[in-house]
Each structure stands twice: as C-alpha cells, then as structure tokens.
Design brief:
single chain, 296 residues, mainly alpha, 13 helices, globular
Length: 296
Amino acid sequence: MKRFDRLEQIRRLDPERDFLEIHRLTTTFEFPWDYTRALELALYRTYAVPSIGRLLALTAELTERTQKRYDDTALLLDSVVEHGFTSEAGRTAIRRINQMHRSYDISNDDMRYVLCTFVVVPKRWIDAYGWRRLSRHEMAAAAAYYRTLGQHLGIREVPGSYEEFAQCLDDYEEVHFGWDRGARGVSDATLDLMASWYPSPLAPLLRNATLALLDEPLLRAFRYQQPGAITRSVVRGAVRLRGRAVRLLPPRRSPHYARQNREIKGYPEGYEVAELGSFPVPGVRGCPVPRRPAQS
C-alpha cells in the first residue's frame, strides 16, 4: 500500500452514505495522533464559554477527577467510532452520554457548540499540522457523522455541512467567549493533567508549549499571558515538522483507537462502556448543581 492509497479509497466512497467508514478510516488510519490532539483541544476550547466552563468547575469532574473525566470522555466518544451507532457498545456509549448530560441544566445552544468543535477543530488542526490536508470527502463525512451523533444526543438545529458547522462555531465564540474564574480553574487542571503524562521536570516547558498552540481568543478568555513569538514559532514549527515526517512513513496497516492511547491511564485491567462516566447523585432529582451568577 502506498501513502495516498487510503485517500483514494476514501474518495471512492459516498460521504453521505458511507460517513462512518470514511470517518473511521480518517481517524484511526490516516490521523490517529492528530485527531487525539485536536479533540483534546476541541473539548478544552469549550471551557472558554463561561456557561460551560463554570458548570464543569461546579461539578468538579475536571478539577478533582481530571484523569478519569479525560479517559471516560475519550472512551465513550471512541466507542461509537469503533463500533458504530447501531452496535450494542455504540448505543450504550450514547445512552451514557445522554444520562450524564441530562443530569445538568445544559442549553441546546451550548450542546450544539460543543458538537461544532468536534467537526471544526480537527479540520483546522490537521490542515495546519497534519501530514496532508483533509479532503472534501473527509470534511463532508465528518459533518455527516457528527450530525448523526447530534441527533442521537437530542441536539436541535444541528448544522448540515462543514461550512455551516464552522460558521456556527465562529459566531458562537465571537459572542460567548469570556472570562470566568471557575473556567480558568478547569483550564489549569487540564493543562496540569497533560503535563502529568510526562516526566515532572518537563511540566513547565510542556505547559508553555501547550499555550503556544492556543489562539489569541482562547488565551484572552482565560487571561493567560501571550507566549513569545519565538516560543510560538518553535512549538508550532515542531508540530508541523512532525507532520512532514509522518508523510514519509509507510501508511498504517491497522487502526489505532483512543483506548490504545498511552494517555488513557485509568483502566489498566479494562473497562465496561456502561460503567464509564459519572452517575446521578443518589436522592437528587434534576440538576444537582445550583444555579449561580457569572463570576468576575
């Protein structure tokens, strides 16, 4: 198999009918590392919307149980990619996601925005740092895949095309990105988690490197100091260089799923999809998190 043979295979498929197969080929064969990094950034990006970041802070899921929340989110989302929407594992994963979301007061607008990040952020990341750009087929398939996921999650008014997803994301961020103290705490906990995957002396360097990959609206929303131009250039150049090196490698022969990632730490003995995630507080009906005014 040659380097671009799988892309030719993707182009022979119908992105509306075969979206799951195309998305699986793209995420597990062509860009498994890039999709992992991009989905991390996608979820991280949502913290900058105060209504999302504040709720995550109040639940403490991402500040006190950061590794578990990371593991469970990755494994639940990837169960659908690996097994499909109609499989037992896929249906169980979607059921668990719905059970968790319905335990809290989350607006449809926020849910739709999070869904948009899953479509748009990977495309923008791969175009900047991947070994090739995403094709139109892959963009259309990703939009169809997440449109289907959104329907299963009960999200209303889901965008149709990639361009509509991107417009929805950009418009929402322009209006809603802003400072919240709780969201900053969630951001700090996430950065600390990512640094913990490597030897501790490297933690400050890794934190700065991560900040160098963030765009100005994100840095401004969290009130982080802007990394220097040299730091940004070196870090982003290194990630681009990795993509160019991957381009020279032979194509992957077997799929790589999120459950195989070294960053997944919490289940060395395996896991049951039905047991992933958080569960409603016993004796509490409705949202267990009290409504609070925005923090300044």
